[in-house]
Amino acid sequence: MTRLLSSALALTKRLFKIIFSFFHSIGEIVDFFLNCVKYSITEKFYVNIFLKQFLKIGFNSLPVVGLTSIFTGMVLALQSYTGFSRFSAESAIPNVVVLSITRELAPVLAGLMVAGRSGAAIAAEIGTMKVTEQIDALKTLSTNPFNYLIIPRILAGIISLPLLVIVGDIIGVMGGYLICVNLLNFNPTVYLQNTYNFVQFIDVFSGLVKASVFGFLITFMGCYHGFNAKGGAQGVGQSTTYSVVSSSILILLMNYIITSFFFRL
Amino acid sequence: MRKKKIIVKNIYKSFKDKVVLNKLNLDVYESESLSIIGESGSGKSILTRCIVGLLKYDNGSISFGNLNNINTLNDKEKMNYMSKFGILFQNSALLDSLSIRENLKFASKQDSFNKILNEVGLPNSILEKYPSELSVGMQKRVGLARAILKKPEVLILDEPTTGLDPIIARQINLLIKNLVKKNKITTITVTHDMESVYEFADYVAFLKNGIIEWYGNARKINKSRNNSMINFIKGIN
After folding, report:
1. What is the pTM of this model?
2. Confidence of residue B47 (pLDDT cuts 50, 70, 90)
3. Between B221 and A94, where is the model more confident?
4. Which chain A residues in 31-60 lie under 8 Å from chain B, judged by CB atoms?
5. Would you list the domain boundaries of chain A?
């Protein structure tokens, strides 16, 4: 009986520890976010660092986002044809392709690709700076690390992701076009006309809103985990993993929330 | 007449259950060079990080000039306070994505760094290089240049000779000695290297179990009767 009681006590203790550490992490994330807001208003903005990060996160991610979008558009056209041809609705393929790409696939896939590419790089870079005392050195050189390292990266993410998604939208639609025109014998003019007539402002806009939110999540989680890296190389590796995993999960979660918000409009 | 620059009073710092600094007291005097020695994990670096303001202590107070308890400073005051220190970090902590010139520009907005590079024995040609292109010894020299370039009130040297071979370590010790004595900068050195202590320390504080076990003139260090310190100096655990 005593043994049972003590093991139940140990279990409860462990459970409380997990709950406490969960809320502790949430508190730390909120604190980090509030610091970002506070310092972005009150202190210096490093334009050159922002531009560098804009190129790194945005421009350098173009190939990977472009490739993902074109193949997704092509696959989407083929799979839609398989389904729609069963009830002679092939003409709806351009509509499905453009709707899926602009509302859903381009922002989510671009988000996940950039999370793996730039989010990991941000966490690794800032994490290395943390464990090698470069962030402490910045502080003693009268430079606020939030203004120098964090805010330019987050802003670059928020602005560059929607631009990447616009490019992804165009390339994705062109992927569908290539398959439909060259493989499924669609009329090129009719395909483009259908696409243009069907797509609405809200389709593209909702995708761009998602992209902005994803850009924030990717860069914020990368910066947060990098900034809180501990130990040596192992700690940096861990922060990179946490950054990619947490931003990917948050992208999928926020995708649902934003989709349901626009669904009600 | 010795004038107190930094007063550390009853400092207490712990990490979870581990007490690192246990009501430690220490005075740092103006224009003097103080070496803090002690075994690994004795809290030497934690103490200097508390003094600089990079780490908050749990209890006690650190006073610097008119500032009475640096734990209570707000962000802006803390930034101002930190700018009074020049720090040579253990692994130099040069920003590796920037060139040496850009690294030095963090400390001073001037365009020419010829004089300071000359003082630390480095050629001008390194200015456009990146930290990863320099040897560890050269990185230490750049770190030292960056630390003194901002004309700090207090210079902190965290293990200045760690990771260097004996010849380069000796060169660095001599370089620090010349810079410190010439500029009469208040200096706190955290070190394991007794050569550094003999070379440029005026006073020595021996840290053990979170307190200063021995404090005295560097020239009297070998006459001390503190067994722990004698064992430390002789390398006996």
Report:
1. 0.88
2. very high
3. A94
4. none
5. 62-264
Q: Which amino acid is at A230?
A: K
With b for 16 or more beta-carbon neighbours within 10 A and e for fewer, the A25-36 pattern comes to eeeebeebeebb
CA distances from A157 to A169, A214, A218, B172 (A): 18, 8, 7, 43
Give the tokens for residue A185.
């014998």
Smallest CA-to-CA distance from B6 within B29, B25, B31, B23 is with B29
Cβ of A144 under 8 Å from any chain B Cβ?
yes
Per the listing, tokens 């101002």 go with B80
CA distance to partner chain A, nearest, from residue B224 (Å): 35
Helix axis angle, A106-114 to A201-227, nearest 10° = 20
Q: How does DSSP assign A62-111, residue by residue?
A: HHHHHHHHHHHHHHHHHHHHHHHGGGT-GGGHHHHHHHHIIIIIHHHHHH
pLDDT of residue B168: 83
* A142: contact with B, CB 8 A cutoff: yes
CB contact under 8 A, A133 and B90: yes
| pLDDT the model gives residue B165 | 83
Mutate to test the interface with A, among B16, B49, B56, B75 (most CBs of A within 10 A): B75
Lowest mean per-residue pLDDT among A44-48, B22-26, B176-180, B189-193:
B176-180
What are residue A58's phi and psi, to 5 degrees? -85, -70
Residue B52 to residue A144, Cβ atoms within 8 A:
no
Cβ pair A144:B79 closer than 8 A: yes
A134 touches chain B (CB under 8 A): yes
Confidence at B236, pLDDT banded by 50, 70, 90: low
Neighbours of B1 (CB within 10 A): 3
Report whether A116 contacts A244 (CB < 8 A). yes
User: Is A140 within 8 Å of chain B by CB?
Assistant: yes
Quick: pLDDT tens for A165-207. Answer: 999 999 999 999 999 999 999 999 999 999 999 999 999 999 9
Of A137, A142, A144, the CB nearest to B93: A137
Residue A136 CA to residue B46 CA, distance in Å, equals: 13
Q: Name the amino acid, one letter, at B221.
A: I
- Paired tokens of A205: 């806009």
Number of CB pairs, chain A paired with chain B, less than 8 A apart: 46
Residue keyed to tokens 């010829």: B114
